[in-house]
Design goal:
It is a single chain. This protein is of the alpha/beta class. About 50% of the residues lie in helices and about 15% in strands. The chain has a single domain, classed as P-loop containing nucleotide triphosphate hydrolases (Rossmann fold), CATH 3.40.50.300. The protein contains 9 helices and 8 strands. Strands 2-6-1-7-8 form a 5-stranded parallel β-sheet, with helices on both faces. It has a 3-stranded antiparallel β-sheet with strand order 3-4-5, covered by helices on one side. Helix 2 crosses helix 4 and helix 2 packs across helix 5. The N and C termini lie close together (about 10 Å). About 40% of the residues are buried. Bound molecules: 2'-deoxycytidine-5'-monophosphate. The site of 2'-deoxycytidine-5'-monophosphate has 14 residues, from helix 2, helix 4 and helix 8.
Length: about 220
């Protein structure tokens, strides 16, 4: 039977890379829910550029946009009102405001409905912050994926460098720590490890080892 697998954890723990690889092996669909909050953040930046915006402005934008997920050769693509934003949602500018966007309850309500619909037929691995606690509380497998802050910052640093972004490691570490704090301390669906979630600390694991651990848990 095709299962529903929920993976939660802090920024840079390797959730997307691992969930994507495990989904390919299992023949499941990978759903990256962070991309959905990022796509709203991207739209906010399109509309406000250099001007200030409030939570109410963000909520109004989210209310009026359509987020669509599709799959191309097994990779998730994400579009906002028909425009593919799969790459542009990964810029440091979007990352800088996404925690603010993800803390707004009306934004979350809209995204959670979509996420639950997408998981309704099973055979999915979904990653995020509130998947086991809120989106898919009946998931068959719940994993809390983490790694030390130093290791997570190092991984993000390499990833950003490879994409051609100029980044400072110490600054990146501070930004990740600030995002973890915002995501864990917000009122609405904070990042938590539910008691039944299996803890997978990948600080000293390579990708193959971590992937094998997820597949074992899924099976
Ligand atoms: O996983 P990520 O870095 O792409 O996520 C972007 C932001 O979205 C992150 O700061 C937390 C938020 N998020 C969330 O609140 N709930 C989710 N299910 C997924 C992401």
């Amino acid at each position: 039977m095709k299962k529903v697998i929920a993976i939660d954890g802090p920024a840079g723990a390797g959730k997307s890379t691992l969930a994507k690889r495990a989904a390919e092996k299992l023949g499941y669909v990978y759903i990256d829910t962070g991309a959905m909050y990022r796509s709203v953040a991207w739209k906010v930046l399109q509309e406000y550029r250099d001007s200030k915006f409030t939570d109410a402005d963000i909520a109004a934008i989210a209310d009026n946009l359509t987020v669509t997920l599709s799959y191309e050769n097994g990779s998730q693509r994400i579009a906002v009102d028909g425009t593919d934003v799969s790459e542009v949602i990964r810029t440091p500018e979007v990352t800088a405001i996404v925690s603010q966007v993800a803390a707004i309850s009306s934004v979350r309500r809209k995204m959670v409905v979509l996420q639950q619909k997408m998981a309704s037929n099973g055979g999915v691995i979904m990653d995020g912050r509130d998947i086991a606690s809120k989106v898919l509380p009946n998931a068959d497998v719940k994993i809390f994926l983490t790694a030390s802050i130093e290791e997570r910052a190092n991984r993000r640093y390499k990833e950003m460098k490879e994409k051609g972004f100029e980044v400072d490691l110490a600054k990146l570490r501070d930004e990740i720590a600030a995002r973890d704090k915002a995501d864990s301390e917000r009122e609405e669906s904070p990042l938590v490890r539910v008691p039944e979630a299996i803890l997978l600390d990948t600080t000293n694991m390579n990708l193959d080892e971590a992937e094998a651990a997820i597949i074992r848990l899924a099976e």
